[in-house]
Each structure stands twice: as C-alpha cells, then as structure tokens.
C-alpha cells in the first residue's frame, strides 16, 4: 500500500500545476518529477522486473484454484492468473468475485496482482452508459503470414466527415508491403504539457485495402481513453481509474481529415529510424494483435497506460534488448516521464537514434498530401 501511495503522490506532484496558468517547460516537468521523488526521502531499492505493475483492472468472474495457481474466468471468456495468496483464495474458490488488480503493462496481462477482492453481488452492478460511437476496439478476423484481416477499422468514405458520424470497415493488411513507420504528435491545450501520440504505417499499393477494394495509404494506431456518453477526457482525471482504454485502428485518411476539418488541430510527424524492413512489418503485426486484445475492465492512465507509453511498448517489441526504451526509472515508484509524455518523447527518442526530425506540420491546408 505504501508503494501505491508514493506512486500516487508523485503523480499528483507532477500535475498539481494543472489548475494554474503558469507555463512550465518539459525540462522543468522532468525536474519536478525527480525532485518530487527525492523529497519523499524514502530509500527505494531496484526492484526486479516482476514487481512493476502499471495497469489497473476491475474484473468480475469465477475464481478457481488449480494446484498452486489461482485463476479467474471472466464471463466473456478471458482467463487470468491472479497473484493472490492461496490462503485468501480458498475463501472464494468456486465463487463469483469482483477484483481490483494490476497488470504489468499492456502487452503482459496474463497475471494480475490483486489489491482488493470480494464476493460478486449482481445487485450492486451499475448500468453504465454506452461508449461514444467514435471508437471501437479492433477485431482480428484472420492472422496469416501474408495478410491480416481486421474488423472495426475506422475508415473515411465521406470526404467531409461530420463530428458524430463514423464509417467502419473490414480491412486486409499486408505487413510485408509496409514502406515507413511514423511517430505522430497531435498537440492540444495546454500545449506545454499536453499532446496525443499515434503511430502511422505507410504501404505500397495493395498494402491496406477495405472489403470493397478501396485503398488507404497508411494505417493508424491510436490508443485513447474509451469514453462513455457523458464523459470528457481530462489529464488530471486520467490519473485515477475514470476511463476505459481502447487501441483504435483507423485509415490515415480518416484520422488526418478529422484532425484538420473536425478537430481544427494539427499533426506533427517524425519518421521512425534505423528499423529493418522486417522490423517495420513485425511492428504492424504487433500493433494489430495488441489492438485486438479484449481490454474491457482495463483503465487508461495519464502516466502508466496512455497514448504514448504504449506506442513505445509496441516499438520495444521489435527492438533488440540493448535498444529497448526503459519504461520505469525507479520500479514501482517512478515511471520514465520521457517515455510517457508526448511533449517529451520525440526529443528522447531522437537522442536514442529512433526518430528523425520533425517533418513539418499537417493542418487544414495540406492534410490531403500523403505522408512521404
């Protein structure tokens, strides 16, 4: 509990300036994070990798003990191993339970470390509003070496999209036809700290096609808070378990057109450098597979499970171990801010030789020009 409290305290220290109009540089934010940790004056040992738990979950399901392992079967068919003592688990063996737990990170959720567990009572279940129609989790239909078929890809059929209307497609993706990979930043207010990040994969002809043969020049992976009706995303609210999470796939044309014409915003792309063609193709496969994971019950978090750090997790999956980005500076206590805050990540990755320079600004004057 102390470690969870310290992590929360550090996060609150970082974001305590949200309510003020004071402009603080990204460098000052990093210094604030470091000083906040130091001011705690608590010795923090280098904990082993299996002690890093960054993603919150709320789940219900049937608990069972299988030998020395505690398992949770959810109603939608998922199976998790619970990090829970056998002594405590025996009380719930064969029962329906509700658990609050944490996973290590977005690509490692087979084991959940339980913080709270209780008997599940359906009478206490709240009926939640539906999700907003803007986002849907991807559905992986087929996964073959030559091609992947994916449902729920947001597509552009109306060249003047409306704010509340969205088109969805089933698309065939051929990873080996990838051309380039781009890390893309989408600033929003307050821009000294706030931005969204996404990955874009460009293709040779035939690399990304919908069921009717319509082509897209690029696939976008954007990881967002999965908002329900009545919810509005807020950085500070994202520090607590307020929003679900969705790994959304869209065509480039859909994303860039909506950004320019509907959001009245801009995009800033950077080429991801020093990847082999095979690494680029594998990154597409990893992105699609992770986007199709059932994440119901998982929470978005402004620092440890957000739009940016998860992109770096995807990138890490195709890098050799000696080039991977370190996600935690102090395990369990301090997340690597330069690996999670969009305003910091480009410079950080440029320093590691993973990103090239800014490739200009994409806005309502040039959004129809394809990525290079």
Could you list some keywords that capture this structure?
alpha+beta; 372 residues; globular; six-stranded antiparallel β-sheet; 3 domains; single chain; OB fold (Dihydrolipoamide Acetyltransferase, E2P); 20% helix; 7 helices; five-stranded mixed barrel
Protein described:
The protein is an alpha+beta fold and 372 residues long. The chain has three domains: 2-46, no CATH class; 50-124, Beta Barrel (OB fold (Dihydrolipoamide Acetyltransferase, E2P)), CATH 2.40.50.200; 139-358, no CATH class. It is built from seven helices and 17 strands. The chain has helices at residues 2-15, 26-40, 86-89, 252-262, 277-291, 309-316, 345-351; strands at residues 55-66, 69-73, 79-83, 96-103, 111-119, 139-143, 148-155, 167-173, 178-187, 195-203, 208-210, 218-226, 244-251, 268-272, 328-330, 334-335, 355-358. The strands form four sheets. A six-stranded antiparallel beta sheet has the order 13-12-10-9-14-17. A five-stranded mixed barrel has the order 1-2-3-5-4. A hairpin with a 3-residue loop joins strand 15 and strand 16 (334-335). Helix 1 (2-15) runs antiparallel to helix 2 (26-40). The longest helix has 15 residues, at 26-40. It is globular. Residues 1-51 have low confidence and may be disordered.
């Amino acid at each position: 509990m102390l470690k969870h409290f310290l992590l929360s305290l550090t996060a609150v220290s970082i974001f305590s300036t949200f309510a003020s109009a004071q402009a603080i540089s990204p460098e000052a934010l990093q210094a604030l994070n470091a000083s906040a940790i130091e001011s705690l004056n608590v010795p923090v040992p280098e904990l082993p990798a299996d002690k890093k738990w960054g993603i919150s979950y709320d789940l219900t399901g049937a608990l069972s003990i299988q030998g020395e392992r505690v398992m949770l079967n959810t109603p939608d068919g998922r199976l998790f191993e619970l990090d829970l003592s056998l002594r405590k688990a025996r009380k719930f063996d064969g029962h329906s339970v509700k658990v609050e737990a944490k996973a290590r990170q977005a690509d490692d959720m087979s084991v959940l470390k339980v913080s709270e567990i209780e008997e599940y009572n359906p009478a206490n279940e709240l009926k939640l509003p539906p999700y907003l129609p803007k986002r849907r989790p991807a559905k992986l239909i087929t996964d073959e070496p030559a091609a992947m078929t994916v449902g729920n890809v947001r597509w552009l059929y109306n060249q003047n999209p409306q704010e509340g209307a969205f088109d969805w497609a089933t698309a065939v993706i051929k990873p080996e036809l990838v051309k380039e990979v781009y890390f893309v930043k989408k600033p929003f207010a307050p821009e000294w700290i706030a931005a969204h990040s996404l990955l874009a994969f460009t293709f040779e002809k035939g690399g990304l096609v919908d069921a009717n043969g319509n082509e897209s020049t690029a696939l976008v992976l954007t990881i967002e808070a999965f908002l329900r009706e009545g919810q509005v995303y807020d950085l500070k609210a994202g520090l607590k378990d307020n929003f679900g999470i969705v790994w959304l796939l869209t065509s480039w044309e859909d994303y860039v057109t909506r950004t320019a014409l509907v959001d009245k915003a801009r995009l800033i792309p950077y080429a991801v450098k020093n990847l082999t063609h095979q690494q680029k193709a594998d990154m597409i496969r990893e992105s699609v597979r992770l986007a199709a994971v059932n994440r119901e019950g998982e929470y978005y978090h402004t620092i440890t499970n957000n739009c940016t750090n998860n992109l770096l997790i995807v990138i890490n999956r195709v890098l050799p171990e000696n080039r991977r980005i370190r996600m935690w500076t102090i395990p369990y206590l301090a997340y690597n801010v330069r690996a999670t805050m969009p305003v910091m990540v480009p410079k950080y990755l440029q320093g590691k030789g993973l990103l090239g320079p800014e490739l200009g600004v994409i806005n309502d004057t040039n959004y129809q020009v394809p990525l290079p």
